[in-house]
Design goal:
There is one protein chain. The chain is of the alpha+beta class. Strands 1-2-4-3 form a four-stranded antiparallel sheet, with helices on one face. The longest helix has about 60 residues.
Length: about 170
């Protein structure tokens, strides 16, 4: 079986392949070696680009990514434990929730105003820092068992402005 019968190339490709073989035969020994060297360099570059470099990058970055994922896992476990603790804590009466929410809001001073509306509370903010807002939300959730249901906040140079609506009571 000849090479031509094994390689059943379409006519245009067979013509080009034949022309390429004739050109190869016409090259001198030095030119053939240079062409083979160029092909070897191109093949090595492609091998590096497609196979080795991505794997190397993955091996290099894997420990950092693993550490970041471990930190996220620890944070998620901490949040899950906190949620379980809140779920298992005894229910507060509406008066206790309201008192805890007022106490947390009073610590914000003139920058915040709390309005109670039945089972909902609206906190209006004016220039509250992110740390103060974070502490207030944590205290509202843990101390008053209030759950934020809506927030409309804008960040300004002096802090956050806007409002936070909380659900108070047994459904929180």
């Amino acid at each position: 079986m000849s090479a031509a019968s094994r390689l059943a190339l379409p006519a245009p490709l067979a013509t080009q392949w034949g022309a390429l073989r004739e050109r190869w035969r016409g090259l001198g020994e030095r030119d053939r070696r240079l062409a083979l060297l160029a092909l070897a360099v191109l093949g090595a570059f492609l091998l590096w680009t497609v196979a080795i470099q991505p794997a190397w990058r993955t091996l290099r970055d894997a420990p950092l990514q693993r550490d970041l994922l471990d930190l996220q896992l620890q944070e998620m476990r901490s949040l899950a434990a906190e949620a379980q603790q809140l779920r298992n804590s005894p229910a507060l009466s509406a008066e206790q929730s309201t008192a805890a929410l007022r106490a947390a809001s009073d610590r914000l001073g003139a920058k915040a105003r709390l309005v109670l509306q039945g089972e909902r509370a609206v906190l209006t903010l004016n220039g509250v820092s992110s740390a103060q807002l974070r502490e207030w939300l944590a205290e509202a959730r843990a101390g008053a068992r209030a759950r934020p249901v809506e927030a409309q906040l804008n960040r300004a140079a002096q802090g956050f402005n806007g409002s936070v609506v909380l659900s108070i009571g047994a459904g929180s």
